[in-house]
Predict the 3D structure of the following.
Amino acid sequence: MKKIQTMLDFIYKSPTAFQAIDNIKVLLLEKGFQELNEGLEFSLKKGGKYFVTRNGTSMIAFDIGSEVKDYNFNIVASHSDAPTFKVKPNAVIVQDNFIKLNTEMYGGAIANTWLDRPLSLAGRVIVQEEDGIDTRLLHIKKPICVIPNVAIHQNRSINENMSYNNQIDMLPVLTSGKEFDFKAFLASEVGVEANQVLSFDLFLYPCVEGYTWGLQEEYFSSYHIDNLECAYTSLVSFLSVENKHNINVYVTFDNEEVGSLTRQGADSAFLKDTLKRIADGLQFDVYQALASSIMVSADNAHAVHPAHPEKADPTNRPLLNEGVVIKYNANQTYTTDAISAALLLQCARKANVKTQYFTNRSDTRGGSTLGNISAGHVSIASVDIGLAQLAMHSAMETAGTKDFESMIRLLEAFYQTRFKFKKEGKYQVL
Ligand SMILES: [Zn+2]
């Protein structure tokens, strides 16, 4: 099976951050990683491999080199969430023999891409147990709802200027009838009694498998390419590298699409706390280690668009399948600076991987990502990278098949490299 298919399968199995983290966990356990519990002591040793999750939606895994002496962290961070629609607590709307779900948009989805598609539900359901509460992941693996368009005959201007009202136009139809017990439905899906269902975090997802296309299969399309492509490629790189002299760290944070300010987001103390606990466990000075640590913030970038080439910057124009994108922004919404870019370019040279640059047009604001948010908590040299893609935040996004391999190779080189801080502006790269 082609490697890209392995990633498409991973993404299809990971419709929400809950499933993504659960699937990452399985891969880590297979490779001998040991799960830590934030509520218990971290008992760590050199040569050990560990991971810890928060909320079931954010993950930090780390691999402690067996001969690590001058401590440092090589970190790659991505995000596990994606724009979608979240089901509200009183979920059911009954209207004209339709049972609709009341939802609200999570993050900045492109609304019209969700219409007339096979949709389903995934997330978590919290159930009452005899001794307290417990979490059941829910992933309904077949299409169960649709958000239907309005016929062109009833809206003649639909192709000119349609705007979508999330409370009116974007509610999915789940079934037919005059009443519906949503909690009973959830209970039967997770195998408990209806009165055991206390609460839920459930999201819509497009129930469509990712696929490659183009005459040479040079493209692929799927939901959540932003940012499971980075979460997956960085994981593959992290798992394939044995580095005796580093502490290599794999991070994927939830809630990037809604500003990261949650208990488990990049704007939390999760990473800082975990690095401190690693330092305490191995008895080294975390601050000294941070000086020689580098963070790669990996989140996809906008490729030059086939119909709208003018949307891209005149000289920094990421093309599909032309290499890993290094992202710059003068106002530092991306963390890259000349030093961190130069350090990453050393890895790209080692791996013989092509790189290209992204900046916003100077008259466009553009997006941001988790790198600079995380840097506010863990202040280390950071570089923002990503892979070029089209239709970011569409229900189905598109990217280049070759780029996927470039990212794996570049991040393997990153995890193999040791960066030693000598003084401001000077690093030894080993
Ligand atoms: Zn993203």
